[in-house]
TrEMBL record:
Biological process, per Gene Ontology: pantothenate biosynthetic process
EC numbers, comma separated: 6.3.2.1
The UniProt record lists the keyword tRNA processing: no
UniProt keywords, alphabetically: ATP-binding, Cytoplasm, Ligase, Nucleotide-binding, Pantothenate biosynthesis
GO molecular function list: ATP binding; pantoate-beta-alanine ligase activity
HAMAP family assigned to the protein according to its UniProt record, in alphabetical order: PanC (MF_00158)
Cited function: Catalyzes the condensation of pantoate with beta-alanine in an ATP-dependent reaction via a pantoyl-adenylate intermediate.
Active site: H37 (proton donor)
Organism: Marinobacter nauticus
Amino-acid positions noted as binding (R)-pantoate in the UniProt annotation, renumbered to this chain: Q61, Q155
Functional pathway: Cofactor biosynthesis; (R)-pantothenate biosynthesis; (R)-pantothenate from (R)-pantoate and beta-alanine: step 1/1
UniProt subunit comment: Homodimer.
Protein name: Pantothenate synthetase
Length: 282
């Protein structure tokens, strides 16, 4: 497995794979890889001949008070995990390689509606940063397909929409959330949790499953359910950011007639912000 840091090297290698008629799958990540990421690489390897995993902590999607500087950078460990998972090529560019003129001069991709609300409301500019870098990665790698985790549910919706709207010829594949045994969604940011916080963290998924069960049993007083969920999170020691019950396609607030619902949650444990979601069919 090779690792390249420059766009020039990336293009040279990919040109040769394309000339051999190989299909290319892309797995965009920010590194500090865990089994969730590995599942995306495996899925990409099942569907494409060549898997390119990008590792780039994208400054454009971080707010001024967020964890850009402390985000874990663990390239050597990541390379070991990727090689074992069947990855072909790692693309690990510097910020200068991606944004040579700096962020202020960067053209932006703005995705309306699905970017609004939820994480989009709590992290202004975040999805512009994600949409822009993902569009750039699509242009740099020109993959046949790309795999993203359902853990970042709103992000996946944003990427599906921009791919359709900009007519980018890439198949977008969603992959299910990989969890710890106690239900906590695997996430690089779980590493920020101290022992006490880690013991509380599974309450996020427990709350999702409890609300999902009540929806399946026919409850449709969505506002009350969301309020109760926020209370449960707060009582456990979390600081809820949002708990929203939405239409799974539009990500707009659910209405009685909706059959496919998704519960979206973000909550802080200390300074760590956890997100998760669960979909329900009624
Ligand atoms: N537990 C998981 N299961 C499946 N996919 C995941 C999981 N966690 C992350 N992913 C996916 O991996 C890709 C890269 O995500 P990223 O590098 O941000 O990982 P992360 O662990 O979610 O990090 P963070 O803690 O910053 O959110 C995204 O498509 C994301 O949805
Ligand atoms: C898709 C992504 C790699 C874009 O920076 C990032 O948002 C992530 O890791 O989910
Ligand atoms: N997993 C989404 C990347 C971010 O939180 O910035």
């Amino acid at each position: 497995m090779r690792t390249v840091h420059s766009l020039k090297e990336l293009r040279t290698i990919l040109r040769s794979y394309r000339q051999q008629g190989k299909t290319i799958g892309l797995v965009p990540t920010m590194g500090n890889l865990h089994e969730g990421h590995v599942s995306l690489v495996r899925k990409a390897a099942e569907a494409a001949d060549i898997v390119v995993t990008s590792i780039f902590v994208n400054p454009m999607q971080f707010g001024a008070n967020e964890d850009l500087d402390t985000y874990p950078r663990t390239l050597a460990d990541d390379q070991d995990k990727l090689a074992a998972a069947g990855n072909t090529l790692v693309f690990a560019p510097s910020a200068d390689e991606i944004y040579p003129e700096g962020l202020a001069r960067q053209t932006k991709v703005v995705v309306p509606e699905v970017s609004e609300g939820h994480c989009g409301a709590s992290r202004p500019g975040h999805f512009e940063g994600v949409a822009t870098v993902v569009t750039m990665l699509f242009n740099m790698v020109q993959p046949d397909l790309a795999v993203f985790g359902e853990k970042d549910f709103q992000q996946l919706a944003v990427i599906r929409k921009l791919t359709r709207d900009l007519m980018i010829p890439v198949e977008i594949i969603g992959a299910p959330t990989v969890r710890e045994e106690d239900g906590l969604a695997k996430s690089s940011r779980n590493g920020y949790l101290n022992e006490e916080e880690r013991a509380i963290a599974p309450v996020v998924y427990q709350t999702l499953t409890s609300v999902a069960a009540q929806l399946e049993q026919g409850r449709s007083d969505f506002d009350d359910l969301a309020r109760e969920a926020n209370d449960t999170l707060a009582k456990a020691g979390l600081r809820p950011d949002y708990f929203n019950i939405v239409n799974s396609q539009t990500l707009k607030p659910a209405i009685e007639a909706d059959r496919e619902l998704t519960l979206l949650v973000a909550a802080f444990l200390g300074t760590t912000r956890l997100i998760d979601n669960l979909s329900v069919t009624r």
